[in-house]
Amino acid sequence: MAYKNFTIETDADGIALVTWDMPGKSMNVFDMEVMDELEAVLNQTVADDAIKGVVVTSGKEGSFSGGADLTMLEGLLRQFHAESSRDPEAAAKELLAQSRRMSLLYRALETCGKPWVAAINGVCMGGATELALACHARVVSDADAVKIALPEVKVGLFPGAGGTQRVMRMTDAQAGLQFLLQGRTLDGTKAKAMGLVDEIAPKKKLIEAAKKLLKAGVDPKKPWDKKGFKSPSGKVYSPQGFQFWPAANAIYRRETFDNYPGARGILQSVYEGLQLPMDLALQVESRYFASVLKSPEAAAMIRSLFVSMQELNKGARRPADQRPNKIKTVGVLGAGFMGAGIAYVTAKAGIDVILLDRDMAAAEKGKAHSDDLMTKAVKRGKATAEDKDRLLARITPTTDYTDLEPCDLIIEAVFEDRDIKKTVTEATEAIIKPRAVYASNTSTLPISSLAEASKRPKNFIGIHFFSPVDKMMLVEVIMGKKTGDKALAMALDYIRAIKKTPIVVNDSRGFYTSRVVMTYIREGLMMLGDGVPAAMIENLGRMAGMPVGPLSLADEVALDLAWKIVAATRKDMGDKYVAGPLDNILEEMVIKRERFGRKNAKGFYDYPQGGKKHLWPGIPEVAGKPKAADAFDVEELKQRLLVMQALETARCFEEKVLTDVREADVGSILGFGFAPFTGGTLSYIDAMGTEAFVELCKKFTKKWGPRFKPNRLLREMAKNGETFYGRFAPAAQEEEKQVA
Ligand code: NAD
Question: What b/e readout covers 62-78, taking b as 16+ CB neighbours within 10 angstroms?
Answer without folding.
Answer: bbbbbbbbbebbbebbe
